[in-house]
Write a structure and sequence with these properties.
FMN reductase [NAD(P)H] activity, globular, oxidoreductase, about 20% strand, FMN_Rdtase-like_dom, Rossmann fold, alpha/beta, FMN, 6 helices
């Protein structure tokens, strides 16, 4: 079974971006993928502050990403950018960690005015790390109800996410990593 690693860039365990990531994980789990959830919270502040790229937690995350068939990265929007803790983690990973892998970037923000954070903040970093980037999705916080199931309350946003998931799966299949029966 193929693996998709989902990385949360949220420092808060009960965030809207975390809820979106969990929702996507359930969608993928129903399509015969092994879904591995990871979070920036798995890395100690000392490792990030000191830039210890040889720390066991960084090595573990790197190995997991290297084995992945696809990657989804979600970050809340902070100051019209990705979270600093996510950027610090990405800085410690090998430069080409996403080479040959489809990467789906998703950002969750409080206003329509910050939708360009996806294109001007997160995607350039992932591209530099050799990811084969999908278009990505910007999700407005107001459409995420943490107590609802499903949590995303806007049909257009759900359709955009489903379309991007389909593209991620198609990309993996095109590269011969998943059988058509998956």
């Amino acid at each position: 079974m193929n693996t998709i690693v989902m990385l949360s860039g949220s420092p808060a365990p009960a965030s809207r971006s975390e809820k979106v990531l969990q929702y996507i994980g359930k969608m993928l789990g129903g399509q015969n993928f092994t879904v591995k959830m990871m979070s920036v919270r798995e890395v100690s502040p000392e490792t990030l502050f000191h830039g210890d790229y040889q720390a066991a937690e960084i090595v573990r995350i790197s190995e997991c990403l290297a084995r992945a068939d696809g990657v989804i990265i979600v970050s809340p929007v902070y100051k019209v950018s990705l979270t600093g803790i996510l950027k610090a983690l990405l800085d410690l990973l090998p430069r080409d960690i996403f080479k040959g892998k489809p990467v789906l970037p998703i950002m969750v923000g409080g206003t329509e005015k910050h939708f360009m954070a996806l294109d001007y903040a997160l995607k350039p970093v992932l591209s530099f790390m050799k990811g084969e980037l999908l278009q990505g999705v910007y999700v407005l916080e107001k459409w995420v109800d943490q107590s609802a199931n499903p949590p995303i309350q806007d049909e257009n946003t759900v359709r955009r996410i489903e379309g991007q998931i389909d593209q991620l799966i198609d990309h993996i299949r095109k590269n011969g990593n998943v059988s058509a029966n998956s």
